[in-house]
Design brief:
heterodimer, A: Rossmann fold, Alpha-Beta Plaits, 28% strand, B: abc type-2 transporter like fold, four-stranded mixed beta sheet, 66% helix, elongated
Chain lengths: 314, 376
């Protein structure tokens, strides 16, 4: 994680945060390059939100340092504020105010000049597909629209660093596509984006991922390299009764992990060539003759489960 | 900085305007409470239901009973025949006062001997009982004086001379001793405290609940700008409350306002700063609006009781008297009553005004410090 100085937009070293006796974050190092879309992935309680809030300067770390575009966030959070934008899981909107009034409010808080504000809100609303809703009360928007309005408000002051905490949780697929469209556009302009997500397809869109577990980063790399780093190989077992197959395969020799995925079971084995016939025989022995076993490329979810080694969440 | 404060105020105003019931909620309960206090809150005891047991059946005993009726303070609801009926009337609450005149009352009175009269009072409501007993003593004393005058007529001009010191009562500032004159100014302080504290606390906690508070805090706004933007509207609402109740009290209940409106404005402003500080402090102790509401209820009642609004501070235990010293309402009531009824100025009222100023600054500082910490 040593990048040439100046390239790194977000740098955190030895971040620690405790809540009473609980250590929510225990010694995190991060270096996010300018223009990256960096993903924080991990189960609930892994410390994603705590890290986000510390980076945003709203939560003081117990130890460690944070630099954001060269500004020391811990020592001088006020100077970092105009540079960044933080969007929590639920962006705070005034429901009794219209879309335009909410944008006006946040623009003024960040001292965006009136002319810039008009152009920028026009541009952002268009990208979000929300131009017709400018006069609608925020409280009357759908969940996805609210989240997009949150993003518009968060971007109105053209931040250099965007921190998004599970931004698309509970957002419909169309709004999610708009949302990601805006994020890719920002990257073109050199905006650094750090997001946490529980969606694996979303994690795969990131340039790099940090896998978090119990307040520590277990692995940090590009999605492709994380897949390569996954020990063993993956076999997809497709059958009519995946649940039964899951039970049948469990505990077989050479099986490192299992993940039930609807119509199939993803089985991680030490050696695909050798284990595939063995599994076929085992399933047949248990009365499952229709099983189709093929080697597959691991998805990020498989990598996630394999690397965090916490067994099968299914 | 003015831009950010301005946009905070615009936002508050827009939210208030969108809330169709806001004006209704702000004004109607206030006026209803003033009406209730104006008509119902009184210490005067009238028409006390009374049971009479007259075992003497003499002219003197009937005269005594008519003395009671004549004042209008006592209503004879029952003429009992036995002591048992008297007890029953008191037990069931049919009567609050029982007058029992024993046989031989007129005879003893005529002979110049002590004629005992038995009066029992239902002491469940100690206040009413005490006041009723006061009336009883007055009426009996008057009856006694008349009876003595009839028995031993004195030469004209020598009436009562040397017999007693004549007491000339002259209440100042409220010659008619009208309870309303006492209550209405107090109502202004009490209602304003309740409304401003709860409005401020709820408004800040709502921002915390909805998540806008955190959003505002990641913006370059300074905490004091946020706090000013959040409290200034309620300061203005508080002043409007004061003006509304004052005008209503003066026009509807004819409470005199002899003092200076400027002194009133000064006192009200200082009081409102303290009330806003209290509301803000409350908001730092509550995570949800429900908690804020419960805290408000818990807090406002002691402030109300320990203010001298209805119960005299001098009669409270020493410890509670000390507590009243940090109660801004206590000082505000002094100022309100003085401005309404006495018409005195800052030269006289500077101690309570200063006390409110000190409390206001203290509460606001404490709440701002706590507010900063509560953001973490």
């Amino acid at each position: 994680m040593t990048d040439p100085a100046g390239e790194v937009a977000v740098l955190a070293r030895g971040l620690v945060r405790r809540f009473g006796p609980v250590s929510a974050v225990r010694g995190i190092d991060l270096a996010v390059r300018r223009g990256e879309i960096f993903g924080l992935v991990g189960p609930d309680g892994a410390g994603k939100t705590t890290i986000m809030r510390m980076l945003a300067g709203v939560l003081r770390p117990d130890a460690g340092e944070i630099h954001l575009e060269g500004v020391d966030v811990v020592a001088d959070p006020e100077r970092a504020k105009p540079l960044l934008s933080y969007m929590p899981q639920r962006f705070g909107l005034y429901e009794d105010l219209t879309v335009a009034e909410n944008i006006f409010f946040y623009a003024t808080l960040f001292a965006v000049p009136a002319r810039v504000r008009r152009d920028r809100s026009q541009e952002l609303l268009a990208a979000a597909g929300m131009l017709p809703f400018r006069r609608r009360l925020a409280g009357q928007l759908s969940g996805g629209m609210k989240q997009k309005l949150g993003l518009v408000c968060a971007l109105i002051h053209t931040p250099r660093v965007l921190l998004l905490d599970e931004p698309t949780t509970g957002v419909d697929p169309v709004s999610r596509r708009d949302f990601w469209g805006i994020l890719y556009g920002l990257r073109e302009h050199g905006v650094t984006i750090l997001l946490s997500t529980a969606y694996m397809d979303e994690a795969e869109r990131c340039s790099r991922l940090a896998l978090l577990h119990a307040g520590a980063i277990r692995h940090c790399d590009t999605p492709a390299r994380l897949k390569q780093a996954m020990p063993g190989a993956l076999l997809a077992v497709v059958t009519r009764d995946a649940r039964r197959a899951h039970a049948a395969v469990e505990g077989a020799a050479g099986v490192l992990g299992l993940l039930l995925m609807g119509d199939r079971v993803n089985v991680r084995v030490d050696d695909a060539e050798r284990r595939a016939p063995e599994l076929r025989a085992r399933l047949a022995g248990q009365g499952i003759a229709d099983a189709d076993i093929t080697p597959i490329e691991p998805g990020i979810e498989d990598v996630f489960v394999a690397l965090l080694g916490s067994g099968s969440p299914a | 900085m003015f831009e950010r404060l301005y946009v905070m105020l615009v936002k508050e105003f827009l939210e208030l305007r969108r809330d169709r019931w806001a004006m209704f909620r702000l004004i109607v309960p206030l006026l209803i409470q003033v009406l209730v206090f104006g008509y119902a809150a009184t210490f005067t005891v009238n028409h006390v239901s009374t049971v009479v047991l007259d075992l003497d059946h003499s002219q003197a005993s009937r005269s005594l009973v008519s003395h009671f009726v004549a004042t209008g303070r006592f209503d004879i609801v029952d003429i009992a025949q036995t002591q048992l009926q008297v007890t029953h009337a008191i037990d069931t609450g049919r009567a609050v006062v029982a007058i029992v005149i024993h046989a031989g009352f007129a005879e003893k009175l005529g002979n110049g001997r002590t004629a005992p009269l038995q009066v029992s009072v239902d002491g469940t409501n100690s206040n009413t009982a005490l006041i009723a007993l006061g009336y009883v003593s007055l009426i009996v004393a008057q009856f006694q004086a008349e009876a003595m005058a009839n028995a031993w007529p004195l030469p004209a001009g020598a009436a009562a001379a040397g017999a007693a010191v004549p007491l000339q009562e002259r209440p100042w500032f409220n010659e008619g001793l009208d309870d309303r004159w006492f209550f209405i100014p107090g109502v202004i302080g009490t209602l304003t405290l309740i409304q401003v504290v709860s409005l401020t606390a709820l408004a800040v906690v709502r921002e915390r609940e909805v998540g806008t508070l955190e959003q505002i805090m990641v913006s370059p706004i300074r905490p004091f700008e946020f706090i000013l933007g959040k409290t200034l509207p309620f300061f203005l609402i508080g002043l409007a409350d004061v003006a509304l109740v004052t005008i209503f009290g003066v026009l509807w209940f004819r409470v005199p306002f002899v003092g200076s409106p400027l002194v009133m404005l000064l006192g009200s402003s200082l009081f409102l700063v303290a009330a806003l500080g209290l509301g803000l402090l409350l908001s730092t102790l509550a995570r949800t609006q429900q908690q804020a509401f419960a805290l408000n209820f818990f807090l406002v009642n002691p402030f109300f009781i320990l203010s001298g609004f209805a119960f005299p501070i001098a009669a409270m235990p020493q410890v509670l008297q000390w507590f009243t010293l940090i109660n801004p309402l206590r000082y505000y009531l002094v100022v309100l009553r003085a401005v309404f009824l006495k018409g005195v100025g800052v030269d006289v009222l500077w101690p309570p005004l200063t006390a409110m100023g000190v409390l206001g600054v203290g509460l606001l500082t404490l709440s701002v410090l706590r507010f900063r910490k509560s953001l973490d």
